[in-house]
Each structure stands twice: as C-alpha cells, then as structure tokens.
Amino acid sequence: MTKARKPGRPRSIEADRAILRTTVELLATEGLRGLSIERVAERAGVGKTTIYRRWPTKRKLAEAALNVFFTQLEPPALPDTGNVRDDLRELARMRLRMLPITGGHLLLPRLAMESVDDPQLYRLIRKMFIEPELAVFVEIFRRGVERGELRADLDLALAADIFRGPLVFRLLMTRSDLKQAQAIIEPVIDFIVRGGAP
Fold it and tell me: How many domains does the chain have?
C-alpha cells in the first residue's frame, strides 16, 4: 500500500532564499517595526500564504532571516598567522570585506537602534552576533597570551571591546564609510598590542 502524499506543494528552496534575502534587505531599510509580510511577499515574488505557512509572524520571519544573515558574517576560518597583530588585521579585513556584500553596515546600526526598546530583539542580536563575535576575538587574544605576545593578566573581553569599539563608533555614530573605518584598524591594533605587551 502506497503512503498518501501530504497535501500542498513541496517547499521551494528558491522561494525560501528569496523570502529571507528580501526580509534582510527590508530590515536594513525599514527596521523590524516597518517590516511587513505584504512587502516581503511583493518584493520576493511570492504569495503571502507562502510566507505565513513557513513563518506565522513577522518576528519569526525576521529571526529566520537574521539567522541566515549572521551565519554569512562568520569568517571561513579563524585566522592563525602565528602572531596576534596579523590575526587581528586579517580578521578585521574579512569582516569589512563582508559588510558591503551582506549589507551589514546598513542592517546592524538599524537593529542596534531598535533593540534599545526591544529586549527580545536585543537578546536575538546578542545570541546570534555579539557573543559569537566576542568569542572569536577572545580566542585570538588568548593565543597571543599563550605565545607570550600579550601579558598573562590581560582582560581578553576588554581587549576585544577596545578593538571593536572604534570601528563600531565610526560606522554607527559618526557614519563614516567603510574606507574611513578601515583606516583606523592599524592604529587600534598597535594601541592594543603595545598596551597589552608583557
């Protein structure tokens, strides 16, 4: 006896990709508050019911889209050049190279602003982006300590914040472009490596 097929059309991977990509694009320009299933459906070229079958609310849709987006931000591999200075330089280059591709330089500032009044959104950003990003930088500094390049009592999380802080400030607060943000990488690395030296 053959098993009866479940009703409805099978899921389309292409439709899923179009929906999630469009959601990220709209989040970057409209934010979560301005996001609507109707706009996503229209721009992705699918019906609203196609979206609702997969994600019953716009927050669920946003979470799925952001999960894909933050996965794209992950570097292909943690740099391991043999010294902390070059590791930081290479990681920063990878991050800045990915931002215009993913649109992260537009999306992340808007999400940061909205998360001030949205604890659930903040927890999502912290889980998907802030904590994994912190872990990558802490690992680079930890290896620097093990190799004797940095002092043993260095606060690894603070060093990571000091490295990322100027870049975030330039992109979010002074609205510098990526080229201007990239210009401070070397001075910041020099500041940290010298300050953290044994």
Answer: 2
